[in-house]
Amino acid sequence: MSHLTTRPAAGEYAPYYDLYIKNIPAGHNPLQQLHEQPLLLKELLADFTEEQGLLRYAPGKWSIKEMLVHMIDTERIFAYRALRIARGDQQPLPGFEQDDYVPASGADARTMESILHEYDTVRAATLSLFESFEPEAFERKGTASNSPTSVRALAYILPGHEAHHVHILQDRYLSMLVK
């Protein structure tokens, strides 16, 4: 999958997603990062209690459980977008409002174990999907959230989005627990 080591061009995604795409090292296959990320995430969360899963780094911010479910929801949505675009679907795909999804998720009432099980299930499905695509599928473009979007860009955005939230977990949440 050497075709994936070339970053998507500016016209393949909305400029906002630079925030995530920059989290993939140059020349690195984003699917490899999707394979590696669960190990890091589980290492970071290995000793978390249910109470710590409810931690918020500031009033009005998501709990750790809510952030994890947000990552899962986003992965599902972006993988669905990739499927539709890879199959040549040219129907514009709508955006979603993350701040509406999180409260409706019921994340804080769930166990960390159930959230991490769902994470594993979704990640396995995402990898299976992306690894099934022929090289030309990654070049296909569609429209998502009113912006051009390629399957290659989505392959970068997905692990980049998780990397973004893992940085937040490390910088804002875990620093509160070390004190």
From TrEMBL:
Name of the protein in its database record: DinB family protein
Organism encoding this protein: Hymenobacter taeanensis
Domain DinB-like: 33-168
Domain of life: Bacteria
Pfam families hit by this protein: DinB_2
Family annotation (InterPro entries): DinB-like (IPR024775), DinB/YfiT-like (IPR034660)
